[in-house]
Amino acid sequence: MPEILSLSQARRLALHRQGLAGSPTPKGVQGTQEVIQQLGYIQIDTISVIERAHHHILKSRISDYQPAYLQALEEKRAIFEYWAHAASYLPIEHYRFSLPRKQDFQSGKEKWFKRDPKTLQYILDRITAEGSLQSKDFKVERTKSTSNGMDWSRNPMNMALRQLFMQGKIMITARKGFQKVYDLTERVLPAGIDTSLPTTQEYMRHLILRDIHAHGFLKAREMGYLLRGTSKIISNTLAEMIEAKELVQVQVKGVEQGIYFSTPEVLDDLAQLKLKKQLHILSPFDNVLIQRKRTAELFDFHYLLECYVPAAKRKVGYFSLPLLYGDQFVGQIDLKADRKKKVLLIKNLLWEEGLKQAAKMEQRLEKSLAQFAKFNGCERVE
Fold it and tell me: What is the 3 state secondary structure string of the chain?
């Protein structure tokens, strides 16, 4: 029989595993490493309307977080950059589980661009001889135009760098600003890291346990998020792990459909979990809500990142940020950091329908905004 959780228990467990329960709060470089290990990955995103997503996600969980903490972890090789469901920072101890995807890129089973062996070898030869290089160190060779006549540059060297990165031939050794610095994998990877290719079963078990560790409980479709061709293998592995009593099935009252999976160890902690109510201004790419259907089912929060929506159809704004208070999503706020004037601009604020005590929530938001402005290098909020 499945374990039965109330909706309140389920939310509390999910937020605790995600580091959003409020206490205790990690600090420093070590705390940053622990958060990345707990979450399994931190998504990297280029949008810079406010501080970029990877820093924002970590700041939501680490009271004294500074971007330098992430840089320090990359420099000491405690984390590495590769693909989770998107470009991400991952714990270095998970390195071998990046190898199946790298193998697919090496074999041609998966590819983003037409392979250009001559350019790939040219880049490898230069990095081998010269040491770490950036994309700007390689000359742009040709320009293409789009069908509507707008000119744009597509650098074959940059495409080759990305191809070699996805193949695992090179790694990102550091960043200068937001620019990647590449070097040969054997010169970046620390000694003693397991580089053996996992079997399919080992890989699926890793995905399942990594995601349960991060979220507390998940449905089969929520595991291995956005990894193509894994759903059937994950389902078979789940059945094996249930049979071996490594996993337990879970139902959540108030969620109409579907069985969740968890581990006995995760559920054993449930009675001890406490939730400190505080207002979080979350990134649209935060791990807790990146799977929108899960967020809707568990939290009754139907979120849409509107930067991908035509301006005339937006309800909140270009970069609307979810507001989490306790175990409830209470609204969204559209913010922009004017870094020249050092002002954090509130472009729009929308509370969830039926929110009680909105005036008190605005007071909590005012305090959170002051802290968020400082994090974004701003001195005041308008």
Answer: CCEEECHHHHHHHHHHHCCCCCCCCCCHHHHHHHHHHHHCCEECCCCCCCCCHHHHHHHCCCCCCCHHHHHHHHHCCCEEEEECCCEEEEEHHHHHHHHHHHHHHHHCCCCCCCCCHHHHHHHHHHHHHHCCECHHHCCCCCEEECCCCCEEECCHHHHHHHHHHHHCCEEEEEEECCEEEEEEHHHHCCCCCCCCCCCHHHHHHHHHHHHHHHHCCEEHHHCCCCCCCCHHHHHHHHHHHHHCCCCEEEEECCCCCCCEEECHHHHHCHHHCCCCCCEEECCCCCCCCCCHHHHHHHHCCCCCCHHHCCHHHCCCCCCEEEEEECCEEEEEEEEEEECCCCEEEEEEEEECCCCCCHHHHHHHHHHHHHHHHHHCCCCEEC
- pTM, two decimals, is 0.93
- 182 token code pair: 């590449």
**Sorting pLDDT into bands at 50, 70 and 90, what band is 142?**
low
- Token look-up 């040491």 returns 131
Give me 309's structure tokens: 């929506």
Mean pLDDT of 251-276: 91
The pair of three-digit structure tokens given for residue 95, joined into one six-digit string? 């390195």
d(CA 167, CA 183): 13
| 320 within 8 A of 305, measured Cβ to Cβ | yes
pLDDT at 192: 94
Q: At what angle do helices 67-75 and 28-39 cross, to 10 degrees?
A: 80
Distance CA 157, CA 139 (A): 7
**Burial class of 238 by CB neighbour count within 10 A (0 to 12, 13 to 18, 19+):** buried
